[in-house]
Amino acid sequence: MNTDQPPERTPDGHHVVIRGRKWRATDPSVPEETAARLRRHLMAARRAVHSATTADDEQAERAARSRVNRAKIALGERGAPWWEQSDEERRHRWEEGLTSLDAEDDA
């Protein structure tokens, strides 16, 4: 896959196609700065999952997987489909997710 080009999207724009598999696309209404911050949280959480599984630390793995899930929900990639939510619900979803993930970093 060429990382210089965005992934293929389904005609409705709801999913991206990567290596022949459909994945829910990030909500396009998430402001780019917010989406970038959420992606940083997501990548850090994925690294934490890897570290926890390598260390065989089940508690740390559960916490890291919870962070992955919250980041993906905030991005609109999990949870209620973003195309079925009002603009207010969508904004609330990503703001709440980012606030939660930022607060955990500050703890």
Specify the number of helices. 3
Unreliable stretches: none
Q: Would you count the extended β strands for me?
A: 3
* Strands side by side in the biggest sheet: 1-2-3
Helix content: 55-70%
Region (Disordered): 84-107
Protein name: Biopolymer transporter Tol
Organism: Streptomyces thermodiastaticus
How is the topology of this model organized?
Blueprint: E1 8-9, E2 15-18, E3 21-24, H1 32-54, H2 58-75, H3 87-106
Antiparallel strand pairs: 1-2, 2-3
What does this entry look like structurally?
With 107 residues, the protein is mainly alpha-helical. Strand 1 and strand 2 form a beta hairpin. It has one domain. It has three helices and three strands. Strands 1-2-3 form a three-stranded antiparallel sheet, with no helix packed on it. Helices cover 57% and strands 9% of the residues. It has helices at 32-54, 58-75, 87-106; strands at residues 8-9, 15-18, 21-24.
